[in-house]
Amino acid sequence: MRLRISLCSKGSSLRVPVQYNHLLQGLIYTNLDRMLSEWLHEEGHAYGKRRFKLFTFSRLFGKRNTSKGQIEFERSFHFYLSSVDDRILGSLAEHLLKQPTVRLGNAKCQVQEVGVEPIPEIDFTRPIRVKALSPITAYRTLATPDGGKKTYYYAPQEREWSEALIANLGRKAKALGWAADVDKDLREARMSPYKVRSADQRILKFKGTVIKGWTGLYEVSLPEAFFRLAYDGGFGAKNAQGFGMVGVAR
After folding, report:
1. How far apart are CA 135 and CA 242, in angstroms?
2. Rg (CA), the chain
3. How crowded is residue 33: how many other Cβ atoms within 10 Å of its Cβ?
4. Which residues contact 183 (CB under 8 A, 6 or more apart)?
5. How far from chain centre, in Å, is Cα 12?
6. 144-181, pLDDT tens digit by residue?
């Protein structure tokens, strides 16, 4: 399920740093029931050593100007939040509607609307075209000669990009305890760039860590259940940090 959350600055405009993902994530966690927020932050859904939050959020949308590392929104703006776990969306919606003034960093914002987005109708007999609403990231951690570690981020044009995204999706399904033969069901799955330019690369910082991701248009071939999982929980890695949300392109 997916929510559209519309906010309005209580001042003449809203100023946030270009690197605002952590502020938006903070708004989400702060406005969940405490026990749910703690479980989500500390545990989530486990598969081996990996833990998945299985929610993701978009970038902020609205009229804006960017200057000197700051983004200024003209009062009203919105973002999308989706999750495999309806408890997260229900808790957030209830908190926002009961306490319609929230903080985005140091800025006070008024909640204008919290709406449920319609589930897109999709023809699963052909590839699905999607648009990244937040950067999609796929990476691998490599060992360096000196015994350290280095993160290599794949580009959509690399074969490993699609492989990493599909493998990640399989792990999410296993974390949810799906009884299906996940690896078999994903054998023919793929995600390939449809209209992706070099300008679609996004290099962001999240609490000091550099993360590389890509926006743009993609074509996805997935069984319906797996597409719904990726649509609600996010494609690729670092979804709970604001990466991997897509919308169906028309």
Report:
1. 8
2. 18
3. 16
4. 170
5. 29
6. 787 788 899 999 999 999 999 999 999 999 999 997 89
The pair of structure tokens assigned to 246 is 């897509």
DSSP 32: S
d(C-alpha 164, C-alpha 238), whole Å: 13
Alpha carbons 176 and 224: distance in angstroms, whole number: 16
Coil, strand or helix at 98: helix
pTM, 2 dp: 0.93
Please list the residues that pair with 17 across neighbouring strands: 70
The kind and range of the H/E element at 246 are strand 246-248
Query: Residue holding tokens 């939050």?
Result: 53
Q: How far apart are CA 64 and CA 56, in angstroms?
A: 23
Q: Does domain 128-248 have CATH number 3.20.20.105?
A: no
**Which CATH number is associated with domain 2-116?**
3.30.70.1890
Alpha-carbon separation of residue 161 from 9, 131, 154, 205 (angstroms) = 38, 16, 5, 21
